[in-house]
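Lab manual, section 2.4: Encoding a predicted structure.

Procedure: take the sequence of the chain (129 residues), apply the prediction step described in section 2.3, and record the output as structure tokens. A sample record is shown.
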Amino acid sequence: MSVCSAAAAAATATALLALPLVPASADEQEEGRLLLTVSGAEHSWIRGVRLGCPGAHGKHPHGAEACRDLIAAGGRPDALRGDPHPCTLEEDPVIATAQGEWHGQDVHWRKAFGNACVLDAATGPVFRF
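Recorded output:
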């Protein structure tokens, strides 16, 4: 690839990343856009995904289900119903964060959980990525 082609490809990729998520139709109003992350103790590892709701805008592997649960919770991660199930008492802390906006309001949420199973039980599909 030539230098000019590489520069053009980089400019196109940058322009695409700057485009806002747009609802699929005029009838489908966007609820919100969030960057979700999960990290290990002392940030020994981190992973994240973008989620746009409703639907599955973004790369979340369970986008439709995550949006359904977030819409029911009014966009508040602390109000998620989760997916209650038993977990071991293993201490392997994880930290979950949600940053973005919901109905035009800024969302800045961060919470520590005893282990990944406890996170999953508390938040359901939202942090399953």
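Check your result against the sample. The two ends are 34 Å apart (CA to CA).
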